[in-house]
Write a sequence for this structure.
C-alpha cells in the first residue's frame, strides 16, 4: 500500500510518497505562501510520480473534541473541519487549502485526516482541565488540546525502535523545537502532559510566538485603548518570542549574534533556555521521573548548542550529554553521557511516517 502524505506548513506544502516499509518513494516541497497552493506546481509534482498512491493522508492541526483519531474524509468531515477554523485560525486554513487542492487533483483516491491534537487526547483530567468556570468549559470546550501530536507520536514510536531494551513503561520528555515549539511528557507511549494548550500560543518561547504570559498583563494591555484586540493578537503571534527580544526569530541568527556579544540576542537565548529547562522539568514531574530526553524539530535536530544549554541545567534529573556525540551527530542518534541515568537522543522529525502509520488501518 502506497500512501501520499500531505503536510501543509506555514509557507510550504510537503509531499511524501511512502510504501509499507516506510521507504520514501518520492518527495517534493512546494511553495505555498498565505495558504495558497499553486495548482501548476502541484500538478507537476503529482505528475512526477507522486500520484501513484492508494491513499492520501493529510495533517490537520486541530481536531477539536470531535476528532480523536484518524478519519476518512468526506463532505461532512470537511464541513466539521472548516467549523474548527476559529480554534486555529493561522493553521487550519492552510491544511484545508491543501486538502482541497490535492483532492481536486486526485478525486478518486481515498483521503484520511490525521490530527496534531489527537495524540494528546490521553491527557488525564488534572493536566487537561483549566481552572475556569464550569459553564465556560462546557459551553465552549475549553481544555488543553496540545499540538505537534504527530511529531510527539513519532517520538513515542521511534525511541523504543532505537533502544528496544527500554521497557514499555518508559518515560520520555519529547522536545519539538522549531519555529513552533512544544514539549510532551510521554509515559507508556501515551501523552500525559504537554506545553501547548487551548491554542499553539502557550508554553515555550518560539520564533515569533510569545509562549506563556500572564493573562492579567494581556487584560491590562486591552484596557483604556492601550492596544486593540487585533494588535494584541498580531503581536503575540508574529512579533513576540525570539523576534520580540532579539529582532529575529531565526535561532541560528540569535546564536550567532549572542556569540558576538549582542545583548538583545543573549537575552533572547537566556529567556528561551530558561523556559525550556523549566518546562522539561515540569514534564518530568508529570511522570514522577524521566528515562529519556529526545530532541526533534529544526532547532532540536540541528543545534548542539541549544541542546547543550538545555542539558546543562538538568543534571539534577540525571541528564548529561557527551560533548563529542552532541557535536558530531547524524540523527537518529544517542548523545547522552555514558554514565548518565537519563538517555538522550536526537531524532529526525518524521510526521509523514507517523501519518502513514495511522492511515494504513483505515485504508
Amino acid at each position: 500500500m502506497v500512501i501520499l502524505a500531505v503536510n501543509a506548513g506555514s509557507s510550504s506544502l510537503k509531499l511524501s510518497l511512502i510504501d509499507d516499509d516506510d521507504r520514501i518513494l518520492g518527495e517534493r516541497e512546494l511553495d505555498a505562501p498565505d495558504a495558497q497552493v499553486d495548482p501548476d506546481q502541484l500538478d507537476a509534482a503529482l505528475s512526477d510520480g507522486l500520484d501513484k498512491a492508494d491513499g492520501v493522508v493529510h495533517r490537520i492541526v486541530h481536531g477539536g473534541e470531535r476528532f480523536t483519531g484518524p478519519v476518512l474524509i468526506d463532505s461532512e468531515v470537511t464541513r466539521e473541519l472548516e467549523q474548527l477554523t476559529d480554534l486555529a485560525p493561522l493553521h487550519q486554513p492552510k491544511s484545508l487549502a491543501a486538502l482541497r487542492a490535492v483532492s481536486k487533483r486526485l478525486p478518486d483516491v481515498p483521503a484520511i485526516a490525521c490530527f496534531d491534537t489527537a495524540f494528546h487526547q490521553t491527557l488525564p483530567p488534572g493536566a487537561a482541565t483549566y481552572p475556569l468556570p464550569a459553564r465556560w468549559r462546557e459551553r465552549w470546550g475549553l481544555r488543553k488540546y496540545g499540538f505537534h501530536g504527530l511529531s510527539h507520536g513519532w517520538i513515542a514510536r521511534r525511541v523504543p525502535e532505537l533502544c528496544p531494551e527500554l521497557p514499555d513503561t518508559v518515560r520520555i520528555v519529547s522536545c519539538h523545537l522549531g519555529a513552533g515549539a512544544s514539549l510532551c511528557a510521554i509515559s507508556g507511549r501515551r501523552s500525559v502532559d504537554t506545553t501547548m494548550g487551548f491554542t499553539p500560543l502557550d508554553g515555550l518561547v518560539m520564533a515569533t510566538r510569545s509562549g506563556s504570559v500572564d493573562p492579567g498583563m494581556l487584560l491590562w494591555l486591552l484596557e483604556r485603548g492601550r492596544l486593540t484586540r487585533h494588535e494584541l493578537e498580531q503581536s503575540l503571534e508574529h512579533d513576540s518570542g525570539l523576534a520580540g527580544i532579539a529582532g529575529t526569530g531565526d535561532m541560528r541568527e540569535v546564536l550567532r549574534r549572542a556569540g558576538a556579544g549582542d545583548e538583545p540576542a543573549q537575552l533572547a537565548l537566556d529567556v528561551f533556555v530558561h523556559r525550556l529547562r523549566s518546562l522539561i522539568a515540569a514534564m518530568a514531574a508529570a511522570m514522577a521521573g524521566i528515562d529519556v530526553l529526545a530532541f526533534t524539530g529544526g532547532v532540536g535536530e540541528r543545534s548542539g548548542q541549544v541542546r547543550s544549554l538545555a542539558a546543562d541545567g538538568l543534571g539534577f534529573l540525571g541528564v548529561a550529554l557527551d560533548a563529542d556525540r552532541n557535536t558530531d551527530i547524524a540523527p537518529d542518534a544517542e548523545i547522552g553521557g555514558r554514565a548518565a541515568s537519563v538517555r538522550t537522543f536526537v531524532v529526525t522529525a518524521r510526521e509523514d511516517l507517523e501519518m502513514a502509520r495511522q492511515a494504513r488501518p483505515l485504508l
Observations:
- The longest helix spans residues 263-286.
